Amino acid sequence: MFKLKRVYGYFLISIFVFCQGWIGDVYAGGQGKGQGQQAQGHGKGKAKANKHAFGSVKSDKANRIKFDNKDKATITNYFSSKPFQGTALPPGIAKNLLRGKPLPPGIAKVFLPSDLTSQLPVRPGYEYLLVGKDAVLVNSTTGIVADIISNILQ
To answer: Domain range holding 140?
Structure first.
């Protein structure tokens, strides 16, 4: 009798464990065995889709802060009336200067002139910079590029 209870107990535990795994797969968006690990971020494929559905770990704030058309016109008009000498970035570094990525290390950054920044909207936590021949809006805390106006300098 004792042996029968032990076998029955093991049977119930194994069913419980199986059901937990199956329910976890269903909630994670998997289709069956093995899919739950991918949906939980341990593999490729569905993990990206689920991460997007439930919100990313990174802040999307850099994607919302941008130069608007008025800002672009102001900066373009300023540098067309007051020429400023800038040097182009080396191709390898210029390729790494992308929106949503940190500024590449070792590049010369110059703040926009104060008379120009007074014409632009104040964005707390962001800096207006010249990087090579580009005007860049950068998060001052993280160094992530929020937006770029390419080839603004002659």
So the answer is: 61-149
Give yes or no for a contact between 120 and 44, defined as CB atoms under 8 angstroms apart: no
Contact 62, 146 (CB under 8 A): yes
Residue 6 has a pLDDT of 62
Residue keyed to tokens 């971020």: 41
Q: At 8, give phi and psi (nearest 5°).
A: -65, -40
pLDDT at 95: 87
| Alpha helix segments (H runs only) across 29-134 | 35-37, 46-54, 61-64, 69-81, 91-96, 114-117
- Do residue 45 and residue 67 come from a single domain? no
Assess whether 66 and 50 both reside in one domain: no
Q: Give the global pTM.
A: 0.57
What is the model's pLDDT at position 124? 93
Does the pLDDT of residue 59 top 50, yes or no?
A: no
Would residue 154 count as lying in a domain?
Answer: no
